[in-house]
Design a protein that fits this description.
Elements: H1 2-18, E1 34-35, E2 38-40, E3 46-51, E4 54-61, E5 66-72, E6 83-87, E7 90-94, E8 108-115, E9 120-127, E10 131-145, E11 151-156, E12 160-164, E13 170-174, E14 178-184, E15 190-203, E16 209-222, E17 228-232, E18 238-242, E19 248-253, E20 258-264, E21 269-271, E22 276-278, E23 281-284, E24 289-294, E25 300-305, E26 314-316, E27 319-322, E28 325-326
Parallel strand pairs: 3-7, 3-9, 4-8, 4-10, 9-10, 10-11, 10-12, 11-13, 12-14, 13-15, 14-15, 15-16, 16-17, 16-18, 17-19, 18-24, 19-25, 20-24, 20-28, 21-25
Antiparallel strand pairs: 1-6, 2-5, 5-8, 6-7, 20-23, 21-27, 22-23, 26-27
Length: about 325
């Protein structure tokens, strides 16, 4: 049933984007678009791309101008040549320059080349099945929405990151300080490598979540059946993880100052981090940072970075088995 629902969402999104033209499909400015490849020498601050199938790549070049080129798996009719327009300091690129409704959509590869020193205010990319790749994208805000297309990006100086997919996989590296990082998928896996994040929110249904970060001040991770792994260099901050059957792994420094609360119905709690029980929490160090994990049947595994010591309780091969707190 879940798979049929995902396929239905993908089909609906596909049909919505199959009518091409107009940068944002509802702005009715198709007559302002130029068809085909292009070059922009004027300064731009914002980039908005709508693409259906194939691929989108944003890369850096050596020239002081923005260029964009497309290639296709067939000879393109006029209805399926890409369109673009420059409005103020915003560049819009659309899958088609004309309004065309058909199910025979070509696969097209779009390559956008930016000057190396260009730092954009915002980048918005919307695709249906097209993949998105950005090996070194400099933008303060990046927003990506896709149905089944995979997304890989290395972001530089990005303060706000928002990624939404249905079944597409997400792999993002953003090592600079970020104010907000959000990712939401249905069945797509999420793999994030972060520096500092003020707020981190990830929601999945069955997709696997893997996050490696230096520090996160506020973390909220939600999954139904997908496993969740969070690896932090610093234990500073608060974290809440909620799953139904997904397994949770938290990796913290062996000298972490953490208060861990695990609420579950039938899940197990295994720790390689030295912990002591006080009230409803398991404490490491001063316990000033809160980690709350809620599951129905999912287990919790605590890992100690740089060689952790065993805590209390019955020793197991992988660490210490701890009694779980009763689920509320």
């Amino acid at each position: 049933m879940k798979q049929r629902f995902v396929c239905l969402l993908a089909a609906l999104a596909f049909l919505m984007l199959a009518g091409c033209g107009g940068g944002t499909l509802s702005d009715n400015k198709a007559e302002q678009y130029t068809a085909g490849d292009g070059t922009v020498t004027e300064p731009i601050k914002n980039l908005e791309i709508q693409w259906v199938s194939g691929s989108v790549e944003i890369c850096q070049g050596t020239e002081d101008q923005v260029t964009f080129r497309e290639t296709a798996d067939r000879v393109l009719s006029d209805d399926f040549v890409m369109g673009w327009r420059l409005e103020g300091e915003t560049l819009y690129i659309d899958f088609c320059a004309a309004n065309s409704w058909t199910l025979d959509i070509p696969d097209k590869a779009l390559t956008v080349t930016l000057p190396q020193d260009l730092v954009l205010e915002s980048v918005q990319v919307t695709t249906t099945s097209a993949t998105f790749h950005a090996p070194a994208l400099q933008a303060r805000e990046v927003v990506c929405d896709t149905t089944s297309g995979d997304l890989t990006a290395q972001l530089l100086g990005t303060e706000t990151i928002q990624v939404n997919t249905v079944s597409g996989a997400v792999e993002v590296t953003a090592l600079d300080d970020a104010k907000q990082v959000k990712a939401a998928t249905t069945s797509g896996n999420v793999n994030l490598t972060l520096g500092y994040a003020d707020q981190l929110d990830v929601t999945t249904v069955s997709g696997v979540t893997r996050i490696t970060a230096d520090e996160c001040r506020q973390t909220d991770l939600n999954s139904t059946s997908g496993n969740v792994a969070l690896d932090l260099q610093s234990s500073s901050g608060d974290c809440e993880v909620t799953t139904v059957s997904g397994e949770v792994t938290l990796s913290l420094p062996e000298n972490a100052d953490a208060a861990v609360e695990f609420n579950t119905v039938s899940g197990s709690f295994d720790s390689a981090l030295s912990l002591r029980k006080e009230g409803d929490c398991y404490l490491s160090g001063s316990g000033q940072n809160r980690y709350q994990v809620k599951t129905t049947s999912g287990s919790l595994r605590m890992e100690a970075k740089e060689g952790g010591s065993r805590g209390f309780g019955q020793k197991t091969e992988g660490g210490t088995t701890l009694p779980a707190l009763a689920s509320a």
